[in-house]
Amino acid sequence: MQTKMWKVDKNVDNLITYPQITKAADLLKRNEVVALPTETVYGLGGNAQSDEAVSKIFSAKGRPADNPLIIHIAHEQQLEDFIKDIPAKAKTLMERFWPGPLTLILEKKEGVLSELATAGLSTVGVRMPDHPVALALIEASGLPIAAPSANLSGRPSPTTAEHVRSDLDGRVSGILDGGPTGVGVESTVVDCTEEFPVILRPGGITEEQLQEAIGQIRTDPALSDPQKAPKAPGMKYRHYAPNAPLFLVDGSVEQIQSLIGGKQAEGKKVGVLTTVENEARYQADVIISCGRRDALATVAEALYDTLRAFNESSVDIIFGEVFPESGVGTAIMNRLSKASGSPIIMMK
């Protein structure tokens, strides 16, 4: 399969009729799959009402079929087609955070969406992305769009079109290049089907922001207990992993440096994931700073690009610093823990 790639200026007027948008929308209408930019990461979009299109998404990514997909819409009226009802707290969250990096789990109508997209569940995750190219493409297609991250399953999520091409060239019909994404980590997922909404996945909207909007909110026990099965899309399996094993270390620069030195003594090429504040304090084969510790939003924005950069360096092992689990730091640590797949090394 030849993958078409189109550059789109997100600032042009009337994006819905932009030639590249209409070409990509035509592919979606024919049940092909197209990668598109959002404010979080690039998504791999397909017609959420078509088993054929959804099957192509799973096939292109190599994603397990029991992993439900998030449905993307361009306006709230689309919800009337496939959502049973919208609880009051869900409406409040939509008013406050849509368009934006927030996915809401709602009860679905039967027989509208592909059962493959929802993994046969009675609920569906839905969001409205805050990116003009994504919104224009959804509007031009006239479809609800199922769109997981546009990467091979398990690899770091893509924050540029080049990341998508590196993973999926020849596996998808098209890629819309709308420039680098902004938030850098996926949307927050909130289950709104219970009396008190539950955070199933931390992301670009923080727990503190959600509490301010609707009051009491709970978190999925699986976020802190690895023995419990997670409910959120994309959280059941190991994700975001670089090629080399990543170990997170809760310790000082000096303690992390001792681990680096030990592996170098074994002849290993060692990488360290750090921040601007600490990068000059390490001696390692590859040192990559991932934003600033005093501005965690910059860490979130650069996280996946940093994990992919280690693949280019051919390191044998990576040691990574940990971050405070509050605000967007919760999402950062969630993604790093998934990328590592190993317990944090406690040195304090």
Automatic annotation (TrEMBL):
<feature type="binding site">
    <location>
        <position position="67"/>
    </location>
    <ligand>
        <name>ATP</name>
    </ligand>
</feature>
<feature type="binding site">
    <location>
        <position position="201"/>
    </location>
    <ligand>
        <name>ATP</name>
    </ligand>
</feature>
<keyword id="KW-0067">ATP-binding</keyword>
<dbReference type="GO" id="GO:0003725">
    <property type="term" value="F:double-stranded RNA binding"/>
</dbReference>
<feature type="binding site">
    <location>
        <position position="157"/>
    </location>
    <ligand>
        <name>ATP</name>
    </ligand>
</feature>
<feature type="binding site">
    <location>
        <position position="240"/>
    </location>
    <ligand>
        <name>ATP</name>
    </ligand>
</feature>
<keyword id="KW-0808">Transferase</keyword>
<keyword id="KW-0548">Nucleotidyltransferase</keyword>
<dbReference type="InterPro" id="IPR006070">
    <property type="entry name" value="Sua5-like_dom"/>
</dbReference>
<dbReference type="GO" id="GO:0005737">
    <property type="term" value="C:cytoplasm"/>
</dbReference>
<keyword id="KW-0819">tRNA processing</keyword>
<feature type="binding site">
    <location>
        <position position="187"/>
    </location>
    <ligand>
        <name>L-threonine</name>
    </ligand>
</feature>
<dbReference type="InterPro" id="IPR050156">
    <property type="entry name" value="TC-AMP_synthase_SUA5"/>
</dbReference>
<dbReference type="GO" id="GO:0006450">
    <property type="term" value="P:regulation of translational fidelity"/>
</dbReference>
<feature type="binding site">
    <location>
        <position position="127"/>
    </location>
    <ligand>
        <name>L-threonine</name>
    </ligand>
</feature>
<feature type="domain" description="YrdC-like">
    <location>
        <begin position="18"/>
        <end position="205"/>
    </location>
</feature>
<dbReference type="GO" id="GO:0061710">
    <property type="term" value="F:L-threonylcarbamoyladenylate synthase"/>
</dbReference>
<dbReference type="GO" id="GO:0008033">
    <property type="term" value="P:tRNA processing"/>
</dbReference>
<dbReference type="InterPro" id="IPR017945">
    <property type="entry name" value="DHBP_synth_RibB-like_a/b_dom"/>
</dbReference>
<dbReference type="InterPro" id="IPR005145">
    <property type="entry name" value="Sua5_C"/>
</dbReference>
<feature type="binding site">
    <location>
        <position position="147"/>
    </location>
    <ligand>
        <name>L-threonine</name>
    </ligand>
</feature>
<dbReference type="Pfam" id="PF03481">
    <property type="entry name" value="Sua5_C"/>
</dbReference>
<feature type="binding site">
    <location>
        <position position="63"/>
    </location>
    <ligand>
        <name>ATP</name>
    </ligand>
</feature>
<comment type="similarity">
    <text>Belongs to the SUA5 family.</text>
</comment>
<dbReference type="InterPro" id="IPR038385">
    <property type="entry name" value="Sua5/YwlC_C"/>
</dbReference>
<feature type="binding site">
    <location>
        <position position="149"/>
    </location>
    <ligand>
        <name>ATP</name>
    </ligand>
</feature>
<feature type="binding site">
    <location>
        <position position="40"/>
    </location>
    <ligand>
        <name>L-threonine</name>
    </ligand>
</feature>
<dbReference type="Pfam" id="PF01300">
    <property type="entry name" value="Sua5_yciO_yrdC"/>
</dbReference>
<feature type="binding site">
    <location>
        <position position="123"/>
    </location>
    <ligand>
        <name>ATP</name>
    </ligand>
</feature>
<comment type="function">
    <text>Required for the formation of a threonylcarbamoyl group on adenosine at position 37 (t(6)A37) in tRNAs that read codons beginning with adenine.</text>
</comment>
<protein>
    <recommendedName>
        <fullName>Threonylcarbamoyl-AMP synthase</fullName>
        <ecNumber>2.7.7.87</ecNumber>
    </recommendedName>
</protein>
<dbReference type="InterPro" id="IPR010923">
    <property type="entry name" value="T(6)A37_SUA5"/>
</dbReference>
<keyword id="KW-0547">Nucleotide-binding</keyword>
<dbReference type="GO" id="GO:0005524">
    <property type="term" value="F:ATP binding"/>
</dbReference>
<dbReference type="GO" id="GO:0000049">
    <property type="term" value="F:tRNA binding"/>
</dbReference>
<feature type="binding site">
    <location>
        <position position="72"/>
    </location>
    <ligand>
        <name>L-threonine</name>
    </ligand>
</feature>
<keyword id="KW-0963">Cytoplasm</keyword>
